[in-house]
Amino acid sequence: MTTDASAITVRPARTSDVRGMQRLIEPYVQRRILLGKELVTLFEAVQEFVVAERDGELVGCGALHVLWEDLGEVRTIAAAEGAVGKGVGHAMLDALEHRARHLGLTRLFCLTFETDFFGRHGYEEVDEHVVPPEVFAELLRSADGGVAEFLDLAHVKPNTLGNTRMLKRL
């Protein structure tokens, strides 16, 4: 596989990409780096995803989930085994940050084991006080599991063990 990052194309995901996205995510699930996502969940969230292609081959995916008026979460970034370290994650994160700015977001959150990767992109470790109490109370109403992880609720603690909470100001 080429190492030329300029050969990577990042575009919005389509429903025809979803099964390929699930294949990209699965090795990370097996290694307990990402939580597994049901196929239906990926279809429901396809509009949040971008995919990376190289020579017409799907080599990465990642998502941006809006949490609040100024805050989004970068989720489910996965690169194909042969594409790791070759600019795929960087290209997807750039595209997701661009999308976040376009939506008017000023902060991006991630919950990750990949602290070096996100640190190189301007993310810093944060404590649990990322939103004021009134926003926290509103976010408690969300049925989204990722929002519960963001809020660091007790019932999702087994999913987040060892992960680092990181934030970037755009």
From TrEMBL:
An annotated GO BP: L-arginine biosynthetic process
Keyword Secreted: no
UniProt keyword terms in alphabetical order: Acyltransferase, Transferase
Gene Ontology molecular function terms on file: L-glutamate N-acetyltransferase activity
SUPFAM superfamilies in the record: Acyl-CoA N-acyltransferases (Nat) (SSF55729)
Database matches in PROSITE patterns: GNAT (PS51186)
Pfam families: Acetyltransf_1
Signal peptide annotation: none
GO cellular component: cytoplasm
Residue span, N-acetyltransferase domain: 8-142
Top-level taxonomic group: Bacteria
CDD domains xrefs: NAT_SF (cd04301)
NCBIfam families: PRK07922.1 (NF005921)
Protein name: N-acetylglutamate synthase
